[in-house]
Amino acid sequence: TGDIRAVLDWELATLGDPLADVGSSLAYWTQAGEVPDDAPTAVDGFPTRAEISAEYLAVSGRNKRTLGFWHTLGLWKIAIIAEGVRRRVADNPANAAAHGVPTARDVQAIIDQGWAVARESGLTS
Fold first, then answer.
1. What distances in angstroms separate CA 21 from CA 6, 30, 48, 68, one per listed residue?
2. Please, what is the end-to-end C-alpha distance for the chain in angstroms?
3. Cβ neighbours for 80, distance < 8 A, ≥ 6 positions apart
4. CB-count exposure of residue 50 (10 Å: 0-12, 13-18, 19+)
5. Which end of the chain is more exposed for a tag (fewer CB within 10 A), N or C?
6. Closest to 75 (Cα-Cα) out of 120, 38, 112
7. Are 82 and 61 a contacting pair, CB within 8 Å?
8. How far is CA 60 from the centre of its chain?
């Protein structure tokens, strides 16, 4: 029929456990009060990461700790990507995007969020 039923980002999609993609989605899911504050998911009406996680776990029967692992890994992947962007811009300022370059503080905030998710999921003390 030509109707779009799904969109898949082949560059970041993962073969294997579906929780890998759910974890990455949660990592990119910005909530109100977080940076970037202009992300579509930060607007009123979108569910929170906790709501998404609870619904997915209830429907799938999967383990919260396992989802926490993939969410943590997703955040650390974003931190690595952001640090790579910082390095490319440091090497050649022409690589800077129009919307700006992640700062060291931005990268550390993502890493800290990863640690928080790991602790909340019982992955570390």
1. 14, 16, 17, 12
2. 52
3. none
4. exposed
5. N
6. 112
7. no
8. 20
Q: Which two tokens stand for residue 113?
A: 């969020």
- Here the tokens at position 20 are 């890998």
Reported pTM: 0.85
Structure tokens at 24: 């990455």
Instruction: Kindly state the helix (H) or strand (E) to which residue 56 belongs, with its residue range.
Output: helix 49-60
- Give the tens place of pLDDT for each residue, 38-77: 788 988 899 999 999 999 999 999 999 999 999 999 999 9
- Cβ pair 53, 26 in contact under 8 A: yes
Backbone angles phi, psi at 8, to 5 degrees: -125, 125
Which amino acid type is present at position 38? D
